[in-house]
Amino acid sequence: MSDGEPETIDSLTARHKKELKALEGEKRAALKSAKSMGKKAKAKIKEVEFKYEGLERDMKARHAQEVDALNNGGGAAQEAAPGDIDADNESQQTEEEIAALKKQKALSKKLKKKSAQKQKDLDRETRILTENASAGPSPRDLEISTLKSLYLTPRKLTISEVTADGNCLYRAIASQCLRLKLLPESKATYTQIRSLCADTLLQHAEEYEPFAELDHDANHPAENYDEYVRHVRETNTWGGQLELRALSCALKVPVVVFSAEGPPLTMGKEFGEEENDGELGYGEKKAVLVSFHRYYYALGEHYNSVVPLEEGS
User: Fold this and answer.
1) Which of 87, 175, 226, 287 could tie 254 with a disulfide, CB 3.0–4.6 Å?
2) Segment 233-245 mean pLDDT
3) Which own/partner contact pairs does 271-276 have at CB distance under 8 Å and 24+ positions apart?
């Protein structure tokens, strides 16, 4: 179509398609560039997507206005030789164009609303990332870094994570029992370890009862020692040093607890090997190794299993 000729609906539609295709090409190129930005890629990709959603929305709104202006300005409905279009077809096409225009406007409104929400979410995520970056390492990250650098990495050990569900201590011990082959697989479960611990607490009540925290411990809401032991056996009540000591006695192996708060704590040293005792005062290959974390989860204290580096995931 030459510059002096009026634009028809067909040529207008073709131009609109060409413009949308060109915009899509620009968007793909911008996304490709954003993906190569390393750590900043995620934020840049979102920024590009938001930008081109706005450009596409504006372009479609302009297209709708141009269609409306062409229809209201008496432009040709389509390119055709004079006399080829009868009145019925012309009327039908106009109705279809009006319906398409209404649909386009509704879509534009929907896209605008969606884009506004996306921008709100993007702003929120950007603010959180900025705040986290300026805040420095979290207490959890600092605790793990200290634990590894001071006590685990020098011994070629690492953390093997267990589920945080109130049974973490017993899951960690069960994992160690499998690793060291202290128990058959059928008995190396956290429920079996709980039962083993409870049995030991009952059998040696005179040794453990004085150290059981009753009434005042929210993790052990027991009124007496028997109730305390029942919670150990039947619920997902958290375990602590008392339970670790009992399990060391039951399994007849040292239990070593690594923590960022101080040197490793060994319970049951009397069960260690006499020959080739490690630097911790036990035969390291026969010891149960766990780590204690105060900030690992927001829920509170947590235990993980500790394994040689080559066994870590």
Assistant:
1) 287
2) 96
3) none
| Alpha-carbon span 75 to 68, nearest angstrom | 10
Please state, as a whole number, how many other Cβ atoms lie within 10 Å of the Cβ of residue 161: 16
- Model pTM greater than 0.70? no
d(CA 267, CA 270): 9
Angular region, 178: left φ>0, alpha ψ -120 to 50, beta rest: alpha
pLDDT digits (tens, 9 = 90+) for 51-79: 888 898 889 889 888 888 888 865 444 44
CB atoms within 10 A of CB 274: 7
CB 237 within 8 A of CB 219: yes
85: amino acid identity, one letter: I
Which residue has tokens 């020098």? 154
The sheet that has 300-308: what strands, in order across it? Answer: 157-160, 300-308, 288-297, 255-259, 262-267
Q: Which residue has the higher pLDDT, 127 or 184?
A: 184
pLDDT in tens, 7-66: 888 888 889 999 999 999 998 888 888 888 877 777 788 888 888 888 988 898 898 888
Sorted by sequence, the CB contacts under 8 Å of residue 312 that are 6+ apart come out as 158, 159, 160
